[in-house]
Amino acid sequence: MRSPYMTRLGLAAVLLAAAVAACSGGNEDDTHIIDPPDAGDAGDASTPDAGLDAGDSGPGEDGGTDAGDDGGTDAGPEDGGSDAGTDAGSDAGTDAGPPPGTVTIPNELSGYGLFTGTPAGGDFKPVEGNLPYELTTPLFSDYSLKSRTLYIPAGKAALYSADAVLDLPVGTIITKTFAFPADFREPTKNVRPLETRVLVRQPQPVGWVAYPYVWNDALTEATLASGGKVFKDFSFIDEQGVTKKLDYLVPQRNQCQKCHHVVDEQDNQHLLPIGVKARYLNREHTYGVQPVNQLQHLASLGKLEGLPPAAQVPRAPDAFNAGEADLTQRARTYLDINCAHCHNPKAQPGITSRLFLDIKTTDEFSLGYCKRPGSAGGGVGGEFDIVPGSHDTSILWFRMHTEVSGKMMPEIGRALRHEAGAQLIADWIDAMPPRSCK
Predict the structure, then answer these.
(1) Where along the chain is composition biased (Acidic residues) (predicted)?
(2) Is residue 402 part of a domain?
(3) Could you report the per-residue pLDDT of 204-243, keeping only the tens digit for each?
């Protein structure tokens, strides 16, 4: 397991997060209220995982863990209170200010008070109360190493869900930092963070909002980049010693809605984290000295309510560990974390294509077996989404394998092929009993 660029992260008091990517529509001047958390180390001598298990299949997104000491005070950002000032020039008379729990959105990442140190100094780590976490299978993002954290405000808790994203309270902040070592054969050396994406849950009617922060060349600060950024001709050496080059995209805020959304009964889109689901958080992480199940740790800290006995909590396997599950389970898990945030019955791409890749779908046609695509167009590798027994005539595999813009999936979030992921899906399709699709 690779170590992240966050050295000796002070694991402190809670768990979870998500991810996910970080952008979304919204006003530039989101003015809210936040008190900086305690910048002290939580006393956790361990180094959190960078989120890259078997090639970081990774976005998004985002399970959390409380890394604090069990009896301690949540030192993270306080709830923004209501500043009920009087507006003398308003016909209404009184300006009630922002709703309680509203979080200030700073121009610099350091303004959240969620981290101490800098990547430049080698001491960049979350403060007590901002909790590192890992996923059983993370979402793939061009091989980047990812460090995820979750902050849940003092006195609040998430609500457990067996299937959906955990119901995280107003004031929750999820971060995901994307970084690359110069050479993946030495993944802890010369690590360069490019961006940190932040998801914030504001009071209704705003809800979840996403913000991208880009690190400066000196690696001393990350600054809000609502318009995104492209790192042209960014390169690194992969695990096989091959130089990879890409135009790395930091998404614009409004691009995050593309992946992080659900559609309600009124056809309105709402931003939502991706990875903070029980099945992806159901794994151990080292807090202090001993490894602890992330969900159980969160519950023990009073940050998760309704957690059932361990045997009743679902778990997604590591998609690249054949010892954890069979080929079908691992392939379906990979599709669930990488594709199902769009390809499900409550997201626009799923509604349009009728291709549902979430783990709950069992109908073969909805999974793509001998199904013609709804909107793929020509030149995408075949006539059917999945041709059982033949990966190289299946559109699903082709769009995962290609690096041609406009044909590859996902449409944003990657420029490079995930070799291990594409091979996993090829093996799964080829293992199906052959079928003639007409």
Answers:
(1) 63-81
(2) yes
(3) 999 999 999 999 999 999 999 999 999 999 999 999 999 9
